[in-house]
Write a structure and sequence with these properties.
The complex is a heterodimer of chains A (525) and B (313). In chain A, the strands form five sheets. In chain A, strands 8-9-10-1-11-19-12 form a seven-stranded mixed sheet. Chain A has a six-stranded mixed sheet with strand order 14-18-13-17-15-16. The radius of gyration of chain A is 25 Å and the shape is globular. Helix content of chain A is 30%, strand content 20%. The longest helix of chain A is centred in the C-terminal third of the chain and has 18 residues. The two termini of chain A are 45 Å apart. By secondary structure, chain A is α+β, with helices and mostly antiparallel strands. Chain B has a domain of 218 residues: MetI-like (MetI-like fold), CATH 1.10.3720. With 313 residues, chain B is an all-alpha fold. The chains are: A alpha+beta (525), B mainly alpha (313).
Chain lengths: 525, 313
């Protein structure tokens, strides 16, 4: 054999197409939206941890694509004492991944821990006199007042999710991560295989028994798993992720970036679609502690100048099918969305009028510190449009480029801007976080206890309290119309529109459920 | 020789001590708060303060530095705030891909660049010289990520010869390991080849004009022995210097290359840690990189004395 033959042979061996690519039917390879930095679903609001959480952990209730709750871990519930006593009964055959049975006391401890980290949970616990395990199967809530949204709270799919975990883990301080990831969900987390920032793996939990009834829909219905393993590979670079899914090295890319969608749509081996029809709502948030945004009239002047389409085009491009303007306070397409007060956002824009309103409001040329996270492309784009708009309105914009890590620290500062404070920043939430006032963070207006920006609007808080006590859907909708009207008057934040994020997966995958990255029901072939 | 080596090794101790202090201080004064990131959107200021306490971030600088240094001296780099895993474990998980990438790039660059530089010098002014220099200019000018994307598009997506991304551990077979490394190594090696080839050419040109080379030629020695035995050894000090300095270039380049090719190496680990303010990871990895760089410089120093014993004096 000549040396050249050896070289040619070696090169051929190196270049041989990857053996077994796409041949392993039992492994689903997935590119998540971000690194799974945190595993404890009670500990963080990161959406990627929520997705992981729903694989490993189960919830007492699930919700469907209309965000309506239905039993998941519970067989059912009984409501007594005029809605002041709820008894939830666990269904049979529920096991933790360590092989021990799921007991009511585990769930009680889990609910208590979750409620310390979640606004909806806090609202539930605020009306709860006593929460206890009557026996191994029954969880009992004794309430101070009726709380018809109890299943909605315990079935929410927006972070922080009410994940159930064994009592020995659920008694961990809510501000400390659990040391072990043991749930009762359809997948087991393979801790030994985890490489933070790069790779996580899950195995099907053989002893998981899906519900016998219902239809798989978001987190509701039976969770039937068709893959032995699911492997997540973190690929931070969109071009590389695109290449990996085109070449078949990966099966599913959670969030394909807008600029690569035309390329992916041309590939017949790929399906490009939108799973979360509610999308992401972007907002402009003011610091109401300091001028100029301590003045509601100034905030209203800015609101009246915002053209949501400008912001959405900057984030999601010119494909109008991928974004919505005319977005108000509540998630479009859900029961609480309404048109009350929306003319301020939908009427024809008139910059001269807005400038006059700003002058009349008493804006005196104060510096406006705009925090811009340059490492977060969508928020950078929103911030750039914000800077342009405020400048055209005649405001003195101090464009402060920073990174997201610094921004989340600075936004908590209540100091004036010359001592490191801030005036305005842009951020986003899953629109499905905003179906109701319950878990709607930027809508809270309870002053010092409110979300960053600290709006203080007692009327808005009273309306929120009234909503929790509303007897029926019609009453809830009426209150939400009032809430929106008030919010578009006092402007705790400016809604900037909502956009959809496409997902891409190999066309041989079927049964991918709407909502977010859900791994049951998916099968190949 | 051993005394010289010992003296040089001892000199690295204060350097590492300064690096440790610098790394710790830098993070102390840098903006950003892991507690705020951990606390998330729904946390109150009190929650953030509680998390700061639980992480020990509320304690004085001197106390925290002292504890950290004590643990480092005992081989404990701390625990990642986010991953909740020991930093040494996280580094151990990721050291192989980075070492593989850097070592293979180094070997590839030297194997290609040194002969190319020697040849360019030996044929100075010819088309070979111009070609080598053209390639070197391109290697310098085109960023690593552009080379990476082009290579991936051609060899992975169009020809389907090599994988787009990922890393296969050496334990799963040499061929599979090499397949995953080919594109990243070529992408990262481009700039390094350019650097070494240019320095080699310049050093060789200087040496080839010396009297002893003329004497060797006059004695009837062939071109290869003159170039690679007599000339290259005397031209090697600047070449070794640039290879040593280039390790820093490799560390920086590895961060980009690991991102482009989704290689789970240390470069990506530290970038992720910086974005999250995961202080123990940033400190541990920076200390490790600094240690590697100091050791490489030590090796380069020692090599000088082997190549030119006068330096020991």
């Amino acid at each position: 054999m000549r040396r050249r033959d050896v070289l040619i042979g070696a090169a051929a061996a190196l270049a041989a197409p990857h053996i077994g690519r796409a041949a392993n039917q039992s492994v689903l390879r997935f590119i998540p939206q971000a690194d799974l930095a945190t595993l404890d679903p009670h500990w963080t609001t990161a959406y990627v941890t929520r997705n992981h959480g729903f694989m490993v952990f189960d919830t007492l209730y699930g919700n469907d694509h209309t965000l309506q709750p239905s039993p998941q871990m519970v067989a059912g519930h009984a409501i007594e004492d005029d809605g002041r006593r709820w008894t939830l009964v666990l269904r049979d055959f529920l096991l933790w991944h360590d092989g021990t049975p799921v007991l009511a006391r585990d769930c009680v401890a889990s609910i208590r821990r979750w409620a310390q980290r979640d606004a909806f949970g806090q609202a539930l616990m605020a009306v709860t006199d006593d929460l206890s395990a009557a026996d191994d199967k029954r969880i009992v809530f004794r309430l101070k007042q009726p709380f018809p949204l109890l299943p909605t709270a315990l079935g929410k799919s927006a972070p922080v999710i009410p994940a159930m975990m064994p009592e020995r883990l659920a008694t961990t301080d809510a501000m400390t991560q659990v040391k072990e990831i043991v749930g009762s969900g359809p997948f087991r987390f393979l801790a030994d295989e985890r490489v933070p920032g790069a790779h996580v793996a899950y195995a099907r939990f053989d002893k998981y028994v899906p519900r016998a009834d219902g239809t798989p829909d978001w987190t509701a219905g039976p969770k039937r798993v068709h893959f032995d393993r699911v492997e997540w590979t973190v690929i931070p670079d969109p071009a590389t992720a695109s290449g990996a899914i085109q070449s078949g090295e990966q099966d599913w890319w959670e969030y394909a970036t807008a600029d690569l969608l035309p390329l992916l749509r041309r590939d017949r081996k790929l399906t490009v679609t939108v799973l979360d029809r509610f999308g992401t709502t972007e907002i402009m948030r003011f610091n109401q502690l300091f001028p100029p945004f301590d003045n509601a009239a100034v905030r209203r002047a800015v609101l009246g100048a915002v053209t949501q389409a400008d912001f959405m085009e900057a984030v999601a491009g010119d494909d109008t099918a991928m974004w919505h303007d005319g977005v108000g306070i509540f998630c479009p397409g859900t029961a609480m969305a309404n048109d009350a007060g929306m003319e301020v956002l939908t009427r024809p824009r008139d910059l001269a009028r807005s400038k006059a309103e700003l002058a009349a409001a008493g804006y005196r040329g104060e510096r406006v510190a705009l925090m811009v996270p340059t490492d977060f492309p969508s928020l950078k784009a929103l911030s750039d449009v914000t800077a342009d708009l405020l400048t055209r309105l005649g405001m003195k914009v101090d464009y402060q480029a920073t990174d997201w890590g610094t921004l989340v620290q600075r936004r908590a500062k209540r100091d004036p801007i010359d001592r490191g404070g801030w005036n305005v920043f842009c951020t986003g939430f899953n629109s499905s976080d905003f179906p109701t006032p319950a878990g709607h963070l930027p809508l809270r207006a309870n002053g010092a206890k409110a979300w960053f920006g600290w709006p203080d609007d007692p009327k808005l808080e009273q309306l929120r309290d009234a909503w929790f006590a509303a007897p029926d859907l019609a009453a809830q909708q009426r209150i939400c119309a009032d809430i929106q009207r008030e919010a578009l008057t006092t402007v705790p934040y400016v809604p900037l529109g909502s956009y959809l994020q496409a997902t891409a997966f190999r066309s041989d995958l079927h049964g991918v459920l709407d909502g977010f990255a859900i791994f049951w029901n998916v099968q190949r072939g | 020789m051993w005394r010289y080596a010992g003296r040089r090794a001892l000199a690295t101790v204060p350097v590492m001590a300064m690096v440790a202090l610098f790394v710790f201080s830098l993070l102390y004064i840098a903006p950003g708060d892991p507690a705020a990131i951990i606390a998330g959107d729904q946390a109150s200021a009190e929650d953030i303060a509680r998390i700061r306490v639980s992480l020990g971030l509320d304690r004085p600088f001197v106390v925290r530095f002292g504890e950290w240094l004590w643990h480092v001296l005992h081989g404990d780099l701390g625990t990642s705030i986010f991953a909740n895993l020991p930093v040494t474990h996280m580094i151990a998980q990721r050291i192989e891909p980075t070492l593989s990438l850097m070592a293979m790039t180094l070997v590839f660059a030297i194997v290609v660049a040194v002969p190319a530089g020697v040849l360019a010098a030996a044929r100075a002014g010819s088309w070979i010289d111009r070609l080598v220099m053209l390639v070197a200019v391109i290697g310098f000018s085109v960023p690593v990520f552009v080379v990476g994307y082009v290579l991936a598009w051609v060899f992975a997506l169009q020809l389907d010869w090599l994988p787009v991304q990922g890393y296969t551990p050496l334990a799963r077979g040499v061929l599979a390991w090499l397949r995953g490394l080919v594109l990243p190594v070529v992408a990262l090696g481009a700039i390094y080849i350019a650097l070494i080839a240019r320095i080699t050419r310049a050093a060789m040109l200087e040496v080839l004009g010396q009297d002893y080379i003329r004497t060797a030629r006059a004695k009837g020695l062939g071109l290869a022995p003159i170039l690679f035995v007599h000339a290259l050894k005397n031209a090697s000090v600047p070449i070794v210097t640039v290879i040593g300095l280039g390790v820093a270039l490799l560390i920086g380049g590895a961060v980009v290359t690991e991102s482009v090719f989704a290689i789970p190496g240390i470069g990506r680990l530290v970038v992720d840690a910086i974005l999250r303010r995961d202080y123990p990871v940033i400190q541990g990895v920076t200390l490790l990189f600094s240690f590697v760089y100091v050791v490489v410089n030590l090796i380069v120093d020692l090599l000088y004395s082997v190549l030119d014993p006068r330096i020991r004096q």
